[in-house]
Design a protein that fits this description.
By secondary structure, the protein is mainly α. The chain has 4 helices and no strands. The longest helix is centred in the middle third of the chain and has 15 residues.
Length: about 80
């Protein structure tokens, strides 16, 4: 699993946010488009793309894409 690939998959869940906004250090919770529905989409994407299940509480523990990546990577 690579960080850059993860960032792309993460960004693909957002319909109205420019791809250029997304980087490992992006605090996704501060994005205007962020919502609980998007959180569910990201949890589903992680399950589909990486065959890894994360819980809502783990999702809540992350603020940046890098932090979320680290949580997912630790479950590999």
């Amino acid at each position: 699993m690579e960080l850059n690939e993860f960032v792309v998959h993460f960004a693909e869940q957002f319909e109205d946010t420019e791809m250029s906004v997304f980087a490992p250090e992006t605090n996704f919770r501060e994005l205007e488009e962020w919502s609980s529905l998007l959180a569910l989409s990201i949890i589903a994407m992680i399950s589909e793309e990486y065959d890894i299940a994360i819980k809502g509480v783990e999702m809540k523990a992350a603020n940046t894409i890098q932090e979320l990546f680290d949580i997912v990577k630790a479950k590999q």
